[in-house]
Fold:
Amino acid sequence: MPSHSFWPEQAAFDWSAQAAVLVAGVDEAGRGPLAGPVVAAAVILDPAHPIAGLADSKQLTAQRREALFALIQQRALARCVAEASREEIDRLNILQATMLAMRRAVEGLAVQPGRVLVDGNRLPRLAIAAEAIVKGDAKVPAISAASILAKVTRDHWCLRLHERYPHYGFDRHKGYGTAEHLAALGEWGPCPEHRRSFAPVARAIALHGGGQ
Structure:
């Protein structure tokens, strides 16, 4: 995948008349894993087409996330998924890379919202009024929708990575530092998508060199 990617979508809508009241929810997926990009999403929901069952993506089954992922794509007024690459994470650190991915997601929306609500306690640098909401993915439907888009997008990425490097088990642990993943790192060393700045990966590099 490229260092950052956008998938903006826009419905037929009078943006100029409504932009001042539009609210975008923002969330990320992939801060904790040992490999791959951090993914962020920004979503503006359509009050005329509500989506039932939106919740923190971590509290939903994979099947339910996939169903809501499709509904959000169909019904949202605007949505954008963006990322910061593994290389950017290693260069900037995971916090700054996450803020970068969030900013890219907001700036990639087909229209500028009037307000941005971000999950957590930190805000990316934006030229729009914004508010950080702790546990916002469980409180604000637009943030819930963003959390689902980000989580499912990153999970799909992990499945594709598993096809290239099946011995790591990315289809199961999604890059997190499980016992299975750490054992694979110890046996095989890192693959190109492992985050070199994360301690378990750095230890594997010390044992194996640059890895695969």
About this structure: Residues 1-20 have pLDDT under 50 and may be disordered. Residues 141-164 form the longest helix (24 residues). The beta strands are 9-10, 23-29, 38-44, 78-84, 115-119, 130-133. The CA atoms of residues 139 and 168 lie 35 Å apart.
